[in-house]
Design goal:
Number of domains: 2
Family: Belongs to the zinc-containing alcohol dehydrogenase family.
CATH architecture of the largest domain: Alpha-Beta Complex
Number of helices: 13
Pfam families: ADH_N, ADH_zinc_N
Number of strands: 16
Largest sheet: 7 strands, mixed
Order of helices and strands: EEEHEEEHEHEHHEHEHEHEHEHEHEHHE
CATH superfamily of the largest domain: Medium-chain alcohol dehydrogenases, catalytic domain
InterPro entries: ADH-like_C, ADH-like_N, ADH_Zn_CS, ER, GroES-like_sf, NAD(P)-bd_dom_sf
Organism: Mycolicibacterium diernhoferi
Protein name: Alcohol dehydrogenase
Radius of gyration: 20 Å
Length: 348
């Protein structure tokens, strides 16, 4: 089969790789029908995730068709159309029993495209398949479903729910890339009073308006703190979500929140950030971090199937599998290309 392979920092290749095989009774083999690229893949290519070793197939989001199941798989059969979750779950360990699947101790968690071969390939082996896939409802397209593999549950769980967004809140989202836009989309489920999107790229701020931001701020030309002070009588935002993953954006997020508010870090960080405890120890802040657990995926699937959540605007560029290199180029230059999420499907 063909697959997108990480060859070391800064190097990747769409090349021939061995077909995946059933290794454990709970495995399923899935033919990949649609896949996307995540910002985390770009972090890996920069060398920010040292656990990813050379010759690893990247990717942790896919929609596909089951072609084979192990002897221990009970809920899937060949021919089933499924979403492959970005997080795998053994279902038995302490963390899985608490629905903290991202911290799975039984061999799951974020493993696809990280510790084992991932989804940016023609076929993928999915461990713990009963717990780590979701059936695609009738009437829901591959494209719609694909956005529920990672960015929607990540933004909802690590951003909106960890950030305790409540009706009437002023919410600031630092970074209007795909994760930030998904945070806007899912924050709206909780009826905040005002959503403020902050980004240096005007094209992404335009997208943020489309996704439901009430106010947009380019910090290159405008003070985000002044804008939020005007909205909150100087208090600061009730919840600030960091959706970039740099030291500066994390520190800015802490400066934008009110006393007693929440800072929810969603971004993937590859460098240390300073936590100014000398300034914030007195402010009763709650600062959360997190890897998505995907416990919210069934809820989000239901909202999409019921036409209560529209993910279609997320995909801005479409490619076939034989255009993987071009897709990576477009996605990695998103400030120039306007790319949010790229969709790759089987060549016709």
């Amino acid at each position: 089969m063909k697959a997108l392979v990480y060859l070391g920092p800064g190097r990747r290749s769409w090349q021939e790789m061995p077909d995946p095989q059933i290794q454990h009774p709970g495995d399923a083999i899935v033919r990949v029908d649609a896949v996307t690229i995540c910002g985390t893949d770009l972090h890996i290519l920069k060398g920010d995730v040292p656990e990813v070793t050379a010759n690893r197939i990247l990717g942790h989001e896919a929609v596909g068709t089951v072609t084979e199941v192990g002897a221990g798989v009970e809920t899937l059969a060949a021919g089933d159309r499924v979403l492959v979750s970005c997080v795998s779950a053994c279902g038995r360990c302490r963390y899985c029993r608490e629905a903290h699947y991202g911290q799975c101790l039984g061999g799951g968690g974020w493993i696809l495209g990280h510790l084992i071969d991932g989804t940016q390939a023609e076929y993928v082996r999915v461990p713990f398949a009963d717990n780590s896939t979701h059936r695609v409802p009738e009437g829901v397209s591959d494209e719609q479903m694909l956005m529920l593999a990672d960015i929607l549950p990540t933004s909802y769980e690590v951003g909106v729910l960890n950030g305790a967004v409540r009706p009437g809140d002023v919410v600031a989202i630092v970074g209007a890339g795909p994760i930030g836009l998904a945070a806007i989309l899912t924050a709206r489920l909780h009826s905040p009073r005002t959503i403020v999107a902050i980004d240096l790229a005007d094209s992404r701020l335009d997208a943020a308006r489309t996704f439901g931001a009430d106010v947009v701020v380019n910090p290159g030309t405008q003070s985000a703190r002044q804008v939020i002070d005007q909205l909150t009588s100087g208090l600061g935002a009730d919840c600030v979500m960091e959706a970039v993953g740099t030291p500066g954006t994390f520190e800015d997020s802490v400066r934008l929140v009110r006393a007693g508010g929440h800072v929810a870090n969603i971004g993937v960080h590859g460098a240390p950030a300073t936590l100014h405890l000398e300034e914030i120890w007195i402010k009763n802040l709650t600062i959360t971090t997190g890897l998505v657990d995907t416990y919210s995926t069934p809820t989000l699937v239901g909202l999409v199937a019921g036409q209560r959540l529209d993910t279609t605007a997320m995909v801005t560029h479409r490619f076939t599998f034989d255009e993987f290199e071009a897709a990576y180029d477009v996605f990695s230059r998103s400030a120039e290309t306007g790319a949010l999420k790229v969709l790759l499907t089987v060549s016709q």
